[in-house]
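Async update (no meeting this week)

Hi team, since we skipped the sync, here's where things stand on the single-chain job. The sequence we agreed to prioritize is pasted below, unchanged from the tracker. I ran it this morning and attached the output directly underneath so nobody has to dig for it. Comments welcome in thread, and please keep replies under the output.
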Amino acid sequence: MQQVMWFRRDLRTTDHPALVRAVAEAAGEAVLPLYIHVPEPWGRLGAPARRYLSDSLTALRADLGGLHVRVGDPAEVLAGLAGELGPLTVHVTAAHTPGGQARDDRARAALQASGSTLVASGSNYAVAPGSVRKPDGSAYRVFTPFHRAWLEHDWPQPLARPAPIRLLGLPGGTDVPGEAVAGTGTDHDGPITAVPPAGERAAWERWVEFRRSALADYGTLRDRADLPATSRMSIPLRWGELHPRSLLAGLDPDRDRRFVAELAWREFYADVLFHNPDSTTSNLNPAYDRMVHDTGPAADEAFEAWTRGRTGFPFVDAGMRQLRAEGWMHNRVRMVVASFLVKDLHLPWWRGEREFMRWLIDGDPASNAHGWQWVAGSGTDAAPYFRVFNPVLQGLKFDPDGAYVRRYVPELAHLAGTAAHEPWRVLDGYAHGYPEPLVDHGEERDEALRRYAAIK
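Output:
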């Protein structure tokens, strides 16, 4: 039976249980490394995310020495391969998102019709979603007790890359999707400035540099948007260029507890989605279904201003422009721009969630949706409904010299220091076309509190 390694969100060769199993079961024979390009989700990605994924696949192909790419619905592609090659054993990393599980169910059924099988090994997490439970067997809905239980849960040590990996050369494949994509997309206003190098090797290099230069200060500096104080490991984790337990293996749970906790948040949100498969589109707390949101042309215009970084609040606009230019946004800024959309513009969190998933290179369905629900107050560990981020004060605190704003909002680059956060206080603050504030934050905060109080 021909062994196939179907890569998805696991674009690496080290610490890869499914790849190890595929090579072992091939018993010295060739393995077909396969990637299936599905046009519909690709089309939903913004230009930075498309470029990164393309680069990551190119890096994987170079690392393996080959990668067979086909285009289409996975169930149909796999059935076609079985028709060409005979019965297959298709190895995958187990999926835990609702969409991924549904995809694998369809693929498994299509393979069974030809006498083939789909075999899942490992997961994209140190602890597979659904594994950490309360003593009574129920799922956690609050992070702190989940975190304690997660730390007590065993996870395997990282696996070495299997060697050798013999590859089956098969005609009929296509190029890696998007290899020719360069520069700007038609849906992007400015240059794509800083999409990081992709692939497993580049991810390891970034991790080693972060541990050397920034890990010790991570707990105190991670909220500073103007400093390179975060790891950006969310990107390689999103695409599986590194496995989280490979990172955990080099960390001390006590000394590095703040960073370990951030990895645990990712696993917590994956667990919440596993138990609540509708939570990427629906409120975890059904009381929030009664929340009144703004609608109509004015609301749509406000949403468009937010997406383009034209709200007139510099810290918010810098974040949204960073998102489109780099496919990434500092986590503190993510909270501020989300709060602004939900509590200043009174728009539903899922509109912002979809916008983030379009542009973020690290757009993880579970972390993204539940991060938005945290801000909106409708999810687990939700911020108190009366907590409304002041976008000016947040900027002054976490970008104290205005460097972050000046980097992403060129209309304010002429303003020194904190003036970049308050151009209305400076005589020439609007000299280069920056817009005045879209709303009065104080008034909209009061309105948000009225709406939240009405559903309590």
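Quick observations from my side:
Strands lie at 2-7, 31-37, 68-71, 88-93, 117-121.
Residues 343 and 448 are 5 Å apart (CA to CA).
Reply here if anything looks off.
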